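ok posting inputs for the flavin-adenine dinucleotide job
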Amino acid sequence: MPLTAAGQTRLREDLRGLIKGDVRCGEVTQQLYATDASILQARPICIVYPRNTDDIIAVAQYAAEAEIPLHLRGAGTSLTGESLGEGIILVFSRYMRRLLRTGDDFVRIQPGMLRRRLNSIIGQSQKRLFGPLAGNVSSASLGSILARNGAGIHYLRYGLPSEHLLSLTVVLANGDVLTLDRNALIQPLQGDGSVALAQEIAYGKEYIYAGKVAQILENRTSNQLLESANQLAVNRAGYAEHSILRDSHVDLTQLFTGSEGTLGIIVDATLKTVSLPNRKGAAAFFFRSIFSALEAVSAVLPLRPALCELVDRRRLTMIRDWDSRYRPLIPQDAEAALLVELNSGTLEEPLDAGDCQNNLKHLIDLIQTKRQLSFHAIRVHTERDFQLFDQIIRRSELILGRMHQTIQPIPLFDDIAVPVGAIHTVVGDLFSLLQKHNMTASLSGHIGQGHLRVHPLLDTSQPDMIPTLASLVEEVYATIWQQGGTISSEWGTGLLK
Ligand SMILES: Cc1cc2nc3c(=O)[nH]c(=O)nc-3n(C[C@H](O)[C@H](O)[C@H](O)COP(=O)(O)OP(=O)(O)OC[C@H]3O[C@@H](n4cnc5c(N)ncnc54)[C@H](O)[C@@H]3O)c2cc1C
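and the output
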């Protein structure tokens, strides 16, 4: 929504008059915020760096009145264009990035604080951390992690970010501020307008909004709610309606987490922290077929792994080429690897190191000797081994983009998830579809939670690719939905989907 030069100046002056933070509408700044880590671009008209909640309320009210869209931004590392837009961008990483309070097992933070920074502070001072890591990206901000509620590589250990949330303060589009506490759930009261006003005076705005949300959810059939919950461990499509109503109480924190900033602006949050993990045992299993690796997942999951990642041959080869230390570790003829870290007990009561090693020994015996799925396995227990192990996971997310050949991996199905029991069938169907269109693909993912990343390998110089890709997308999506899966499991919905 381009503005005239006069309109631009008025907007800038209006905003500067309203807030203590910075307002930038110049071309260079607009261009800086026109991209994120996705393939999309959208040029905003103005960028605002708020200093406090009052600034945010003022900008929200101004934008609502002028009918200008608001877009929220932490570090801008999203992959589906969630932080992009043509309106006003609110950036929290300049001024609203402080640690407000530290308790024995919680922290209160501002939204622009980076997860990495928080964990470095409380890791050193308290030997604790905020567990969930949405992506394998060190610069993700905590406001965005909550707003996206992505599962990430540590889902099996820590679950979703929303499970670590204690309270949340949000600013709505009309400037209303809600303070929501997970331990003080709201029971919406019934009544006409005058009762509602009395309740608002007595209990605050939170009750009014909880009532409205409860009313909307009551109109949904239980089937619709169940559908939104389905059997998936991770699903980022739509709002998490099924987790908002609990015993006729309303938990609005679950509505705002995962809403990608479409419902409100997080201005502070109180989060649970957990003890630093005492990592005691992991293993890398190598397979001659990707299907053997998928079969092995069913042997791994009953042992409650902390992490279970699938890496395919292309990525393994690139990792070997990238760092010579991996040459003796990764067999050249491996088609796939499973990287498994075993859970060291509960978060607060770590399992004894001996028990962890026994479980690992049992797992290697099961996968390699008894079921003969894997032809080679390496145990990980020293600090150096863990660093190498972590780098395979980190690199396998990043490395594929470095293929400099005519044939390129295209991130078409980057964020699929299916119920874990259906992975084998779905991958078989995907390979048949790719074969039908004469394509191959690279495949990896957080496989322990049913997440798959499929990059078809394509000659991008071919002009007639688009219709083929369009039918491939339709066929793949149909297969995923048929198996009860989702095409938006954790990287967000954004503008892309
Ligand atoms: C190589 C790579 C791998 C990745 N892997 C994963 C992965 O495995 N899993 C995964 O989930 N993600 C992954 N990501 C995506 C991304 O890094 C993370 O999702 C990260 O949490 C985004 O943080 P950010 O601060 O950059 O968010 P931004 O991009 O700045 O914003 C993201 C979203 O948060 C909303 N938002 C920001 N601040 C607020 C606020 N204060 N209130 C309300 N809403 C707000 C925005 O509206 C937007 O919708 C990956 C990214 C890369 C580059």
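notes: Residues 278-402 form a domain with the Alpha-Beta Plaits fold (CATH 3.30.70.2190). The mean pLDDT is 88.
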